[in-house]
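Final report, Chapter 2: Outcomes

The project's central promise was a pipeline that accepts a single protein chain and returns its three-dimensional structure in a standardized token representation, suitable for archiving and comparison. That pipeline is now operational. To close this chapter, we reproduce one record exactly as it appears in the project archive, with the input sequence first and the structure output second.
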Amino acid sequence: MWLKEDRGVYFSDLSSDDTHRLFNEFVEVWNACRLSNKYYEGISRGPRTSHNWAIKDQNSIPDEEEKFLLDWKKEKTEQKKYWKEQAVLLDELLPKETGRERIFEKRTIRKEMIKARDNSPEMLSEKDILGGGDDIQKRLAQEKARREMQAKGKSVLYNEKFSAYMRKEAAAMDQIRALVDSAGGKIIIPKRNEDA
């Protein structure tokens, strides 16, 4: 305060050497009791810089937007606290399974959901959903025919692969029989050499 009123400078504008020199001057003036009474009664805060910080006084009345934000933040923290307490309470009353039990529990829940979905009555018929009429019947017939052709193609392919496999197996068995016949109808397996 003394720097601003007596010297016309701010503390933040001074170098270290200047602050030390001016402090010594202030102490001399203080000790000589040449300052106004306000300095001796006590000053809570003086200007330290020329910058205007635009800090709001905490006792000032907040505007509508600030009130809304404060209320919203308070409500959110209360909600978080409430749900956290509910989760703790639920965990105490019905503790969750862990490990293998949890895996089995999840699997059971999933199966029940699928079963419930499969067993649920249809609210709308296919005609309501797809529009009905002859056009839809033609499309369904075409789809059915396409699936049948696809199934026939798969069946033919499967049969060809199976017959090729059986021919290969038959050829392998014929070779084995030829080897047995060349050995006089007996298969001789040499004994193991126990020394080796």
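Archive annotation: The helical segments are 2-7, 16-31, 37-41, 64-93, 100-119, 126-130, 133-182.
This record, like all others produced under the grant, will remain available to the consortium after the project formally closes.
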